[in-house]
Amino acid sequence: MQLILQNIEKIVSLSEQEKELILSKIEIQEFKAKTVLLNAGEICKHSYFVNSGILRSFNINDNIVEHVLHFACEGWWIGDMYSLLSQKPGNLFIEVNEDAEVVLLSKENQEELYLKIPKLERFFRILTENSLVAHQERLMDNLSLSAEDRFEKFCSKYPTLIQRVAQKQIASYIGVTPEFFSKMKAKMLKK
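Above: the chain sequence. Below: its structure as tokens.
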């Protein structure tokens, strides 16, 4: 429970009362790998904070090709932002990649916390802004960088994920097929 409070306190300070209120509004659950927390077509009702393990969000296109949008490991948040904010059905799946302990914060409880602890709006605004910047940077990288450069950037930005995430998921994240990814990695190792 301390990890989520530490995460929030990186941006805003909390009194003991505020910490207790936050802890009273969250739910902690353990999930086994491969558990789907959200299916495409469902309305996202929670923000998820990872205490341990890894979650990922992805979409499956009409050709049944998976596109990984985001990974979240210890200390990271994840959710279907479109669906959570609009309360309309989303198009993302959120799945547990490795056994995980996850904090669930419902949309309703988040809104209640905003009223009772207004500085949490600032926390989530900054979190959303950082997410927007990261997504814009990733989009620009996908448009302008080679697959090798995107992989190198992934490795430097997320070094802890390399050994914990399936190669085909990394390939999907950087926008290449698993076959291309294998050939590219082999070529890079020869350098």
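The radius of gyration is 18 Å.
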